[in-house]
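In the present case, backbone shapes were mapped to integers, as reproduced here:
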Amino acid sequence: MKKFVFIAAAAAVVLAGCVKNEVTSNHAPEDAVSFGAYSGRTITKAGVTDDMNLKSLATNGFGVFATYSGTYDFSEASDNFMYNQKVYSTDEGANWIYQPIKYWPNPTNGQSATDQKLSFFAYAPYCEPGTAETKGITGFEIGSLKDEPVAKHNLVKYTFSKDEANVDLMWGYRTRTGMGTPTDPYVFTVNDNQTRKATTIPFIFRHLLAKLGGSYEGPTPTPNPYEDPSYKANGLTIVANPTLDPTKEFGNILSGDFGGATGTKITVKSINVKSAPATAVDPTVKDIDGNDVVYATANQTGKLDLFTGKFKLDNTAEAIQFEQNLTNDAAAVAADATHSLSEIADFLKEPTTAITSFASLPLGVTKKEVNVYKDEANPIILVPGTKPVVDVTITYYVRTYDSKLPDKDYSEVPQTVWGRIKFPEIEANKKYNLRIILGLNDVKFEASVQEWATDGDVWVDLDGDGVVDPGEITPGSTATEINLPENL
């Protein structure tokens, strides 16, 4: 599993788009059902989750289920209006399209337009599962989650792979009414019981799962982390122990000579992050509350309820196993078919060829916190409600400049250090960060949690034309919700 923070990013309006109808229709264009979308992270089908942006959501699309309940309020899903309808954009979100176009029901027998009710539910990224799907979104059904009320809702079936990257899963809701409470973390509004309107049906997309670690998320190409203030360290990071003697030329960062001819350098050969224990059951390993940790022996399945936004494992007694390896070997990463390998950043990684000159070594780990990954990597996906125990093993080299040595001008000592981290109960839409504090002869680990989002660009449709015009993008905004323009 590779790749990996949040706050908010782009928004879009939509026009249903034009398609050729096979039958004559006397509906006015404004009677068409149209959609709007808000997104904060990239959504892809292949398992990659980068900075959210409108373009990626537009390209991959999202799926919509809709029920027509006539004059009655929505009670149970029937999918008699839309079933896994793909909504996408070909112009980066200026217009959202789907086909065939659906229209708001006409009132009959003297009823008003407010008597005809439609309910819409969405997920992302769009997927059209086949019979051979074995991981990620594998299908849909109408039912109820285990131990949930008897009302039947649309459920998205999802399978976690033990050995490969897992695709992100997102849920579309309408208006944020609160970030939840300890007793009810799902305080959100959905698009149920909608009646005829000329405005869009808006969706905001929220992560249903959580992730561990991550990497650089910022300007491309990646700026020099030691010189460029735009560089942001988050996710899975590493830093030299700040308690080291401040006069120490650690990586020679203090002198500003990034080649580094003197001092001490630390380079990283490999990092392994995996769930503990390695076996399905190990009575010696306890979670944060002192309970046994039990893992499934095969891929695990779960379901997302599109009405409540809740995700639940089919077998909640078994946690999910995962393992990710970071390496200094770029060729091994390129040849990796299971996505279990990620490459360590160039300025950190142990060289794969022989080097006899201290000045030619990478800068290595310094007292400047930086990301471990070279590129954005698939996330380790965590399931809400679980309490994972994570083992981290790091192998690194400590080298100190010494011109008196006969074969090379530095001494070197390889070290491998292992640590265990116990997390509290995982929450949806959270990103769990892991910080490796590397000393000359010890390693410490720190974990933190934040909303799964990142600063991003926000589109504000100033002239109301539904098109992203120059000057309408605000870079780096921290807004968390956008008011969608009306359908034209």
